[in-house]
Structures are given as structure tokens and as C-alpha cells.
Amino acid sequence: MSRSGPEARRGALTLRDVSEASGVSEMTVSRVLRNRGDVSEATREKVLEAARHLGYVPNKIAGALASQRVNLVGVIIPSLSNLVFPEVMSGISEELEDTGLQPVVGVTNYSPEREEAVLYEMLSWRPSGVIIAGLEHTPAAAAMLENAGVPVVEIMDVDGPCVDSCVGISHKRAGLEMARAIVRAGYRRIGFLGTKMPEDHRARKRMEGFEAGLAEAGLELEDREFYSGGSALKKGREMTETMLTRSPKLDFLYYSNDMIGAGGLLWCLENGIDVPGRMGLAGFNGVDLLEGLPRRLATMDSCRREIGRRAAAIVAGRSPTGLVGGERVELTPTLEPGDTIRAV
Amino acid sequence: MSRSGPEARRGALTLRDVSEASGVSEMTVSRVLRNRGDVSEATREKVLEAARHLGYVPNKIAGALASQRVNLVGVIIPSLSNLVFPEVMSGISEELEDTGLQPVVGVTNYSPEREEAVLYEMLSWRPSGVIIAGLEHTPAAAAMLENAGVPVVEIMDVDGPCVDSCVGISHKRAGLEMARAIVRAGYRRIGFLGTKMPEDHRARKRMEGFEAGLAEAGLELEDREFYSGGSALKKGREMTETMLTRSPKLDFLYYSNDMIGAGGLLWCLENGIDVPGRMGLAGFNGVDLLEGLPRRLATMDSCRREIGRRAAAIVAGRSPTGLVGGERVELTPTLEPGDTIRAV
DNA sequence: CTGAAAGCGCTAACAA
DNA sequence: TTGTTAGCGCTTTCAG
């Protein structure tokens, strides 16, 4: 409340204030504050002292306008409550740490229209790069990405064309591999449980890949169940009960994410179902929550942190490949069979 | 890659480009694009058409510098993986939705130094307001907040003095109430399990309040255990086992968050411990994951979404109180006894 | 309803 | 090593 001290004035402090207080020209003050160019130690001290004393905070808006450089990287993701995306963010932050770049997050709630709006808003701040989840965008959003004039990295998914660079895994392949492992383990009557969201393209691709994998063995999904909203763990239970009531002969349940898979696992154990003997289970993502469950749910690691790191490296111009854009990085998720798939 | 179309040029499009393309002055183009001032329908159409055609994205940096207004609200939180903070973010986003303001997140990883740095960075973009978790800051950070010249809302906690406004719950009180409920239910030999982080002031305050509540009944904590890092669910299990091995006579375990509490619950159930008869359990936060567990863990709702909403309302100048800063909003968490505290 | 001029606070480029 | 001069792209203000 106080607004006291030397800063009690309309508007924030400017370089000029520091310049006057230190008796050094604005330009030199600017240099000191940016550690640019040669400045004598004496002057440097004077300036720093004055700036500190006044409590000067540089105006990056003006700086950015003048220098045409913005140390921001826009990161556009569907959700923060998904658990997966905060991990991607960690990877990005880690990699950006000592580059001087700062991530700025925008959340779309899996809505293409929100994505378009968020992207527009971000680009209007002229960031140094954009990292955006997914390969599917509205035409307008795609056009913006196309014309952004800065590195654009589409992450999470590599099943499709990308605007500039992409880093992710093939969700089709992930589904396919899981299906093969399941078939190999001898399961034959398989159900799928997932999200209802039509905009969750990656979950959709996993299911498609999964079905393709089953098809190789002449199998088809025997049942499906979808949910939206609410506690995923609870939904996992409920869906599992629903499905097994409807299709009691199933011997495997493939969940589109670990959280509902965990719910299903708990339900099966409580109901005395022999897992993985009578019933096999698998999820997707490799979240660390699984480590605390009574049994380790089979899953497939989605390489989230690594995806974040690699994407950030590209934006920061530090990609190990040395390329400057137009990169396509496909990471390989590892199957973690856990305790819920029979050993072959 | 392509950089094709009318935008294939160095640097991004400017108002001038739209002006030239539409034959309307820059000033009027600006008015159209901001819906400001009266513009004839004909002119408006021409401008919009040209802007759309070119793919013009306004430069907010220049706009902000000229207008001295930035539609950004800085939000500074300790972590994104904590589950709690994404929910606060949702509350903030919801409330800001139709205000024209946009939240920008900064993450501190519970480090005061990081907080200071993140705050500095944010303020250098001259946001319209700041929402920051916690009441404890470095002196420099406190000074920056003090002199920010915009609304500052400290959230999550109200146990202490705040710079401008604050919205949260009393964690001391939360701990106190929980202790009373536990004592009332007849438990007497109580252990505490929590995070090791010395910078988690709210967890610390809950523990202090909890001990004060026990003291009212002439009780003391009989044992404590702390963790850091790793899967919280798993840590909850491990700590529970450790503690019950060390102090087998305990009859209640109070966890500093729901996730480790859930781990503890699972461990107890698997080990045939009668919950809540032989052993009572409680966590904190009221996360919806609890709904999917075999038994409902006792917890206390931390009002996260509401905290986000109220804080955002203050920043947006929409607070129901009509005050302009200097507000102190204490929310009241509700105790949810679940199935892990004996009925009285 | 539309336009011209001035300048937001800073930095690039050049001069001293 | 330091200072001066021009803007960055937009909006404010004021004049038509």
C-alpha cells in the first residue's frame, strides 16, 4: 500500500531516472544493465548502485520494441491438470534455463478455437519461438504458425505433417506395439476404455494403432467405453465395472491413460479378479503415480520430459542435430509390462 | 518452412502494411482493429478484409508501449506438478475470461531466489496485476511487490501480513481444526508425515496449528517423518511403513497432503490394518483423486479454485467488496471426514 | 468520421 | 569508454 520511498511517483522508473541519479548517460546506463559493451568499473558501480537504490526494474516492453528481440517462448498446451503437460513444461524449463529464454504458457482446454485465440495472443507478443502440442490446428492457426517467422515446434505427436519442426512419439505405433504385446501374451478378448474428447487426437491415434495391432492377429476390439470429466481414477473404476458387467468374457482392458487404468486396476483387485491371469490391464503415459499402486500397471512411457527438452533445444537453436528448423524427432516409448500383463 | 504468400518478407507485418493495402490511414486501421472510436462500416470492412487477407497480427509490444497498458496478469506459483496449483490457475482463468486480461504463469520450484527472479522478470513486462502464492518473500521481492504500482494479491495463505491484498485460508487453523476433530474422535497417539521442504510454509503452518490443537488436549505428536521428491503415492506408503514399524502404538496418521495420505491408506489396507478403527488417517487438500480410492481419505478442502477466482476478481477490479486493494479474504476450508476417521 | 504529429522507454548505430 | 541521434510500431491527442 505504502508506495513510499523514491518510487512514490506516477508511473514506473525509467532509465532516465537512473541516468539522472547516477550522472551517467542513459545509453551507458542501458549498457551496464544489460552487460553489453565495455563500461568502466567505476561507472558500472555508480549505475548499479543508483539502480538498486531506486528499485529500478527495466521496461522490457520498450526494450523489446527497440531491439526487436523478445526472450519469450510461447508454449501452447491443452491442459495443466493432465499431469502430462506439467512434465513437458519441466523439460522445457530445464532446457531453457541458461539460454535467457523464458517459457510462457497458454492453455487451450483441448479446444481448437481456444488454441487459435491463444496462439494469436502469443504471436502478438512476438516471441522467439513457439512450442505447441499436437499437429492438428484450425486453418487459421496453421497459417499463423506457418508465417510466424520464428521456430515452431509441434510436440507430443509425429503422426502427420508438421509446419516446421516436431518432437514426439508415434501414438499409432504406441497403440500398435501395445496390441502386439498383448496378443503375444495370449490375450484375445479385448476392451478399450478412453476419453470421450473428440479433440484428443493422440488418444484417438493410439486406439487406431491398437486396433491395427489387433487386426494383425485377426482380432477386433470387443467393447469400448468412453468418459469425460470428473475424477479419472473414479471414472476408471466405474467404466471398468460397466464394461465387465456388459462383457464379462473380456480378458484384457486397454486404457487410454494411466489414471483410468489405475482406477480399473483398483477395481479389479477389490473384486477379486485375478490380474494378470484372468484379466490383463494396460494404460498409457508411465506416470509416477503408478509406482505407489498395489500392483504395477503395464504402461508405455510417453517421453514427456524428453519431448520438452528436445523441443526447447530446437527453439533455442541448440538442437544436437545442428539443424535450424525443419526437424522431425521421433522418440521411442518403452513398453513397461509391469505386473498386469502375463509373462509370455 | 514455406514463408510464402504476401507475408514473405523480413519482419512481421505492420499497421502500415494494412494501411497501404486498404488505402486507409494507419490511425483508422488501428481504431478498427481495436474497436475503438467511430468508424464507418465501409471503412471497417475494407480494413478488416485487408488485415485478414495479409494475415496481420498486431504487435502488442508496440501497442503496450504506446498505450501504457498491458493486458497481462502475472501469476507466480511454486510448482505445476503439485496438482493444487493448476486448480488455482483454472479459477484464475475462469474469472479473467471476459475481462480482456490474460494470466501469465511463472514457476518458482519453492525457491525464494527463483521467486525473486521470476517476479523481476514479470514486472519488467509491466503487467496489470500480480498474483503470487504465499506471504513469505525475500526482502527484495517484497520491495518489488510493494512498489509494483499495480494490484498485488498474495494467495493460498492468510496467516501473516500481506503487501496489498490476500486471499486464502488459514493453514494454522486448518491444522488446528483437524487436530480437534481427531482428538474428538478419540485418537490419542498421533504421528505426522509431510514434506521435507523448509520452504513449504503452508505445510509448516498446518503442522504448527495441528500441534497446537493436540496441545489443547494435552497431547503431543509422537512421531514425525518427512520426505522429498519421488512419487508421492509411493513415498506415502514407504513413510507409513517406516513410521508404523518404528512407532507401532500410533493410532492416527496426519499427512501433509492427500497424495501421501492416499499412499498411506493403500498401505494400511493392504496390511490388514483396521481403518478407521485401529488406525485413523487424514490428509489435506481435498483432491478429486481421493474419490477413486477404496476408501475416502479424511481431508480438508483447500478452496483452491475459489482462491483463484477471488484473487483474479481483485486484480480485475471486480471484487464483490468493491474495494480497490488492501483486501483480506479468508476462506473457510471444510473438513471432510470421509471413511478414515471414526465417527464420534 | 478521419488524419497528422508526437512520443511511449528503450537500444542500434554511429560519432566522439 | 562514453554520448548522440534515430527510430522500433503503435496509440494518444488534437485538428480537420
3D structure, described in words:
- The structure is a homodimer of 344-residue chains.
- With 344 residues, chain A is α/β, with parallel strands linked by helices.
- Among the domains of chain A are: 1-56, 434 Repressor (Amino-terminal Domain) (Orthogonal Bundle), CATH 1.10.260; 171-302, Response regulator (Rossmann fold).
- Helix content of chain A is 41%, strand content 16%.
- Chain A has 12 helices and 12 strands.
- Chain A has helices at residues 15-22, 26-34, 41-54, 60-67, 84-96, 112-123, 139-146, 171-184, 201-216, 232-246, 258-270, 304-315; strands spanning 72-77, 102-107, 129-133, 152-157, 165-169, 190-195, 221-227, 252-255, 280-282, 299-300, 328-330, 335-336.
- Chain A has a 6-stranded parallel beta sheet with strand order 2-1-3-4-5-11.
- In chain A, α2 (26-34) crosses α3, α6 (112-123) runs parallel beside α7 and α8 packs parallel to α9.
- Chain A is elongated, with a radius of gyration of 26 Å.
- The first copy, chain A, starts with 14 loop residues before the first helix and ends in an 8-residue tail after the last strand.
- At the A-B interface, α4, α5, β2, α6 and α7 of A face α4, α5, β2, α6 and α7 of B.
